[in-house]
Automatic annotation (TrEMBL), chain A:
It comes from the Bacteria. The gene is ccsA. Required for the export of heme to the periplasm for the biogenesis of c-type cytochromes. The chain crosses the membrane at residues 20-40, 60-83, 95-114, 126-145, 157-179, 199-220. Belongs to the CcmC/CycZ/HelC family. This is Heme exporter protein C. Residues 26-183 form the Cytochrome c assembly protein domain. It is a multi-pass membrane protein.
UniProtKB/TrEMBL annotation, chain B:
PANTHER family: CYTOCHROME C-TYPE BIOGENESIS PROTEIN CCME HOMOLOG, MITOCHONDRIAL. NCBIfam families: PRK13254.1-1 (NF009727), PRK13254.1-3 (NF009729), PRK13254.1-5 (NF009731). This is Cytochrome c-type biogenesis protein CcmE. Residues 29-144 are extracellular. It comes from Sphingomonas longa.
Length: 241, 144
């Protein structure tokens, strides 16, 4: 992986991350604005759910990023454990907070949809419970990674936790297929979707928009973590001198 | 190079173990994680009497009957293999209708019927505009 190795140098990473952050941020904001407009005004209501169906334009991207965020933590953990990539620990820590936030938004938007559709905000169903577990695992990861960094650890312990946590991703995905649950089965597969095209089309816009915004948040957090590591190192040098 | 390959092998083994444990959790927890009993589960395993359970399935077409008191509903839940008659007194959810999914919370009776204390509508994975669905169901909107 030549490109990843090129980014191992923090100065080179910052030269790319600095201009990329606003590009991703504003692209994300613009796409989400277009997606919200389309999803609120240009699509028909669902034949059963009525207007409630529009929550899917928020719920699906937050679920995608809640799970995608943990995939990012797992990939960073592998890069740290195998290649000792110097930015991997910072990338994983940067992903964890927005990942937890999007998992929480997924749970909240699902509850708001569940009340009019199912008749309940919350049930201990397989999909809902496994997603709540992912949120708790994010919280545990954030605490562990912070403690590890504060004690001057090399990030290997949180990386192992990051890899173990991936066990939840297939459980969340297949919970609605293997178990009987209140949550419906998957509507969107790799090749086909059971959502009518006239309702579906703003969803890819929202997915790309939310992903750009997520990327911008991760880059901002990585830059912050790098800057604080740098200032701490400088303080330590000054204290010694 | 050698150490790096060793670490890569270890990680791949760990990922394999994680995948296997996910499959084991999914299959091993199947009975405990089940959100509801289907009518055919009850037919195969016997009635779970004396405790609160959930019964899930489709509302059989033409089976919904409202009693004269205005709040009691009788209907039949089916999973294609077996059926269970259900009695419920209360407000049904908006999405409760025939040929649609339902989850009832309550207790089985000795005669194999089910008395529900709460009803949840189960939505399926299909989303479509009212025109596509035909005029089968009238969509409830805020204006109506």
């Amino acid at each position: 992986m030549p490109t990843l190795h090129a980014l191992a140098n923090p100065a080179r990473f910052l030269r790319i991350a600095r201009p990329l952050t606003p590009i991703l941020f504003w692209a994300g904001v613009a796409l989400i604005a277009v997606g919200c407009w389309a999803g609120l005004t240009q699509t028909p209501p669902d034949y059963l759910q009525g207007e409630t169906v529009r929550i899917l334009y928020i719920h699906v991207p937050t679920a995608w990023l809640g799970m995608g965020g943990w995939t990012g933590i797992a990939l960073s953990s592998i890069a740290l454990l195998v290649w000792r990539h110097p930015l991997a620990a910072i990338a994983a820590r940067a992903i964890a907070v927005p990942g937890a936030l999007f998992a929480a938004l997924c749970l909240v938007s699902g509850a708001i949809w569940g009340r009019p559709t199912w008749g309940t905000y919350w049930q201990w169903d397989g999909r809902l419970t496994s997603m709540l577990l992912l949120f708790f695992v994010y919280c545990a990861y954030i605490a562990l990674a912070r403690a590890d960094a504060e004690r001057g650890g090399d990030g290997r312990l949180p990386a192992l936790f990051g890899i173990a946590g991936t066990v939840l991703l297939p459980i969340i995905r297949y919970s609605v297929i293997w178990w009987n649950t209140l949550h419906q089965g998957p509507s969107i597969g790799l090749t086909k979707s059971t959502i009518a095209g006239s309702i579906l089309w703003p969803l890819p816009i929202m997915l790309v928009g939310f992903t750009c915004l997520f990327g911008a948040i991760v880059l901002m957090r990585m830059r912050t973590l790098l800057a604080s590591a740098k200032s701490e190192a400088r303080m330590r040098r000054m204290a010694r001198a | 190079m050698k150490a790096k390959h060793q670490r890569l092998t270890l990680i791949l083994l760990a990922l394999g173990a994680v995948a296997v444990s996910a499959v084991l959790a999914l299959s091993g927890l199947r009975d405990q994680a089940a959100f509801f009993y289907a009518p055919s589960d009850v037919a195969a395993q016997g009635l779970p009497l004396g405790r609160a359970v959930r019964l899930g399935g489709m509302v059989e077409a033409g089976s919904v009957k409202r009693a004269a008191d205005g709040v009691t509903v009788h209907f039949v839940v089916t999973d294609g293999k077996a059926t269970t008659p259900v009695t419920y007194a209360g407000i049904v959810p908006d999405l409760f209708r025939e040929k649609s999914g339902v989850v009832a919370e309550g207790q089985f009776q000795r005669d194999g019927s089910f008395v529900a204390g709460n009803l949840l509508a189960k939505h399926d994975e299909k989303y479509m505009p009212p025109e596509l669905a035909g005029k089968m169901h009238e969509t409830k909107t805020l204006e109506q």
